[in-house]
Amino acid sequence: MSDTKDLDQERIAQIREEFDYFDKDKNGDIDQGEFWELLKILSPKASEEQAAEGFSLIDENSDGVINFEEFLAWWQSNWWEY
To answer: What DSSP assignment string belongs to 47-59?
Structure first.
């Protein structure tokens, strides 16, 4: 994942807006269903298998959800461009 310590506060706020948009239930995390919806927008050709694989890679602490810190690192990496 990409190093996020060099991001300015404005860029972090923009990424937070993206995170909040996809956190449909507003619980502070993105679950697998929310991630699938996000990926269908960002990469319409991605398969459900790719989404599941990507989710597992982003969920670094393996708690079953993507928190903002994990999302921030992933968003900066651009690996999701299938």
So the answer is: -HHHHHHHHHHH-
Query: pLDDT tens-digit profile of 20-76?
Result: 999 999 999 999 999 999 999 988 999 999 999 999 999 999 999 999 999 999 988
Does 44 reside within a domain?
Answer: yes
Number of domains in the chain: 1
Full domain range(s) for residue 67 = 9-77
The pTM of the full predicted model, rounded to 2 decimals, is: 0.84
The CA–CA distances, whole Å, from 80 to 1, 26, 37, 39, 62 equal: 11, 23, 13, 8, 19
Take residue 26 and report the two structure tokens written for it: 């507003």
